[in-house]
Amino acid sequence: MSHEGEQDRYVGRSVRNLGQDAFVSGVAKYTSDFQFPDQLHMHVVRSPHAHARIRRVDLSGARKVAGVVLAMEGQEAAQLLDPVPHYIDPVGFGGKTVPIRCLAVDKVWHYGQPVAVVVAEDKRTARYAASRVQVDYEPLPAVLDAAEAVQPGAPVVVPGWADNSIMALPFANGDVAQAFERADRVVRTTVRIHRFSTQPIETRVYNAVPDPETHGLTFYGTSQNPHPLRHVLARALRIPENLIRIIAPAVGGAFGMKMHGHPEEALVCLLALRTQKPVKWVEDREECLLIGAREQVHEMELALTKDGEILGLRDRALANTGAPSACPGWGMAFLTGLTMPGPYKVQDIDVLMNIVVTNKPSWNASRGYGKEATALALELAIDQAAREMGLDPVEMRIRNFVPKDAFPYDSPTGLIYDSGDYAGAVRKAMEALGYAEWRQRREESRQALGFGASAKVAGGGVVGAAAPGAAGGAKLIGIGLAYELTPEGGAIPGTMVAGYDSSTVRVGPDGSVTLLTGVTTPGTGNPTGMAQIVADELGVEVETIRVVQGDTTTCPYGFGNYSGRSTIVGGGAAALAAREVREKILTVAAALLGVDKATVTMDRGVIRSSAAPEKTLSLPEAAYACYTRAYDIGLAITPPLEAQATFRPGLIRHSPDAKGRINPYPSYSNAAYATVCEVDLETGQVKLLKFAAAHDCGKVINPILVEGQACGAISFGIGGMLNEEIRFDANGKQLTGSFVDYVMPRALDVPAIAVAHHDSPNPVTYLGLKGAGEAGVGGSAAAVVNAVNDALLPLGVSINDLPVTAPRVWAAIQAAKDAARPAERPAAATREVA
Amino acid sequence: MSLHPQYARPRSAAQAVALLDGLGAGAMVIAGGQELMPHVNYGRLMPAVYVDIGGLPELRGIAEADGAVAIGALTVHRDVQSSELVRAKLPLLAWAAGQVGGGWQVHNRGTIGGNLVSMHPLYDIVPPLLALGAEVEILSTAGTRRVALSGLIAETSHGLGTTTLLTRVLVRPTSPSTGWSYQKLKITEGSYGSANAAAVVALDGNRVTAARLVMGAVAERPIDASAALKGLLGRPFDARAAAEAEAACAALVVQPMDDQQGDAGWRRAMAGVVARRALAQAVARAGGAAG
Q1: CB distance from A721 to chain B under 8 Å?
Q2: Which of A44, A283, A682 is best to mutate for the B interface (most B CBs within 10 A)?
Q3: Those residues with Cβ within 8 angstroms of residue A422's Cβ, 6 or more apart along the chain or in another chain
């Protein structure tokens, strides 16, 4: 390093987000801002049935509408388009597969499935004409529930499949039967995780613009993974990849939902090629809400010693992934199983994850990518055990963590955890929360209602007493803690989920610096983080660096953003490329200064030599010489001032071990989440009073960006547990169609969040990075549920059936009142309040 | 229904109703647009003609008339909240107008007339106006008629039909000695209400002499519970009276709403909770002991 000291480096500092003024001032160009001459608009006709045979599609009514250019149904689309290749084909894991058509052929298997498309000169005409498409359906029995879907005789979603299971994956290790035999206590908890998703401010938007010169096209779309999408489109459209250019402009959030495999991607391209005009499609909110995620049921069993040490873990899990899709959503359930048992050292585990299709709309990837479900299942089960056994949930976790001196640590599912200090993070989070003070206030809230420290639990008693005051009902305070281990930077063999990525650093003859990278940004600030890395490695001012992403023609081949990977691999690659370019600059600069290269350094774009301190050289002077003096002093370098590098992190192991297991992750970010809630016993309303997190994302490049990501994830977790739910009627029609029903938290619903950093650097990544963009949904969600159950503890009830909405909490309180007869009190109710 | 709608901007309310009379069902009145435009943007409504009354000054503003406070139909929520006259004479309405969801944008655009004619069960303005015994003026080509708001709500399920305009809301001021309250229960800051209640209470000493209470957001129509609360009269509003009122109000919710703002059982129970809370606060404001 050429730098004087750490304080001069950009890495580690809260550098202002580069290019942020464009977003703040409203000039940033989002995908739907792109307009093209003669642009047409696509509207998708969707199935009103969860499961039906298509007898006939009549497009004539739509074709008669003035302004309609083209209408197409599934049979014709199947002639013109090949199936969309799976992002992750279940066949690679020994599962069942099915070709995915963009428009339904012969039958529909979920509500909202695309059946036909209409293209018209404007959006309203396309929508109106779509309402004139007549489809004759023969409804079929639908299966909506995963437990029903795996019963013998259940309707089969995919023709030709023997049953509805994509695969049932065991994650087993050690001697679980023996662990349960040894146990002092077995605690069983059924955790039901509901269907909730991610709702970016900007929905999906695709613009396909044909190129009559090449017979190819340019696709301006909300894509997290432009190069892999190009591959998929090329195969579906039956044209070579080099005729397709993908440009992924600024997006208003992605969260996994904008990973590809969606039918509209190839459809828009097909229609542009057929009409030879630009075609635009903007997803509406109702369509966006069709994309599901996360719906799982876990039957958890913990074998415990009387001190709360976990000896064994059993989990029978069912994931309801909806109808088959080419998107990578189903893989979330695989990750849920693989990440068991999270941060805990128990080695004797028996997890069976059954990944099931139903007649609900399909999943796509959703922030957490299944690891949030691991955290929810584990953390709710551990709190249930702590409640039933009268143990302190903080101490119980600390007792069971993988200790900080055990890394690299071999997990019972074959993962290799790089580093961590889980107990340290918990202590830091509880301190940031103000645990001691909140314990006191919790005790006061219990005392005020007659649940004193020495009093046996009173059941109903004061609960629901009609206090004449208007200020609200009696309230109980609860404290919740949860941990989340989030493997990041994943690489799945044989798929475009690659562990590595590439970046190019280019210095122009004027000294300006451009970073082109294969990783993309969903708005997380990763270009700023990567620019900080390049600024330090190169020795230039960070504001002078321009970052180019999301263009398959100009950027190096890359895999985009997912799995908290962008700064790890894009930044790591940028560092390697920057070093190479810096060597070229310093070589020429040394020649210009007439000094030994070893004495030359560059800092903030100024080149100096310790051998000739009186002389300086600017980066533009040196750069111009590099470009223009290739036959004298530049002979020692290879012009131009450009280098491309790939960062391929270690620890990933794709050759199976003796038990046939692989480790697809280089990096194991982790964090403790803690919160305090107040439950209104009259209404069941939950108000969060405080939130704290202690986060280990390895080396922190930019604290404010990391904290922004953490606060975002925490808001996801809060909203997902307290309000957000995608619901269906008994026939499988989706009821949740707008933000009236899918209620996301607003700023006033999110309490003050204290984020502490608790870094343990990853030994196998550049600077020790672990990834910070994904983690936190499951840990924060579980902390919220645990806090609510802690508040309800004096009543002897708990809720592991999510979400914990006010009506559900109220119903649990009513159940406690009904069960107030002493003989029928549950075991937990006999516990004295600590 | 039309892909190519026409736009009309009448110069007076009389012109507007004449136009509506001639156009029939395809015409739709637009004022603040807070109710209509989301439907249009989603393709659920495609008016053939927009009759824009937004610029008619005669329909906007707040004044005293015939011993009542007269509020023009185009008066926006923000003006209702901030009007000195409304705050002094109808504090319940001023406060409830501030509880309308959607933030400043909706408060600055949404009109009191639009809020009423939308007949939306989750909206905030009807329950307080019913509790205050408001009347409305309706203009048609046949002239102006004045009806109780409660009657209007009872007689049509779709606002006013297609040929009339709601022009004014008239509310008699509440006596300064009466207490009032509007309680709105929301599952988040950004959500619609799950239950709300508007109360107006008068006391003699600490005995309740009059109580009006209207619940909203718990059933398809607002529920006027005043008659069911006769048992409160002549007594102090103590814990027992509060419990009775809560039970009586919940029992009136025969067909509770059941949606993502909350299931039916909870909605019914919450109707009782907000009713009790509203009564208690109104009693306290009237100088009673409950607080």
Answers
A1: no
A2: A682
A3: A343, A397, A401, A402, A404, A483, A670, A672
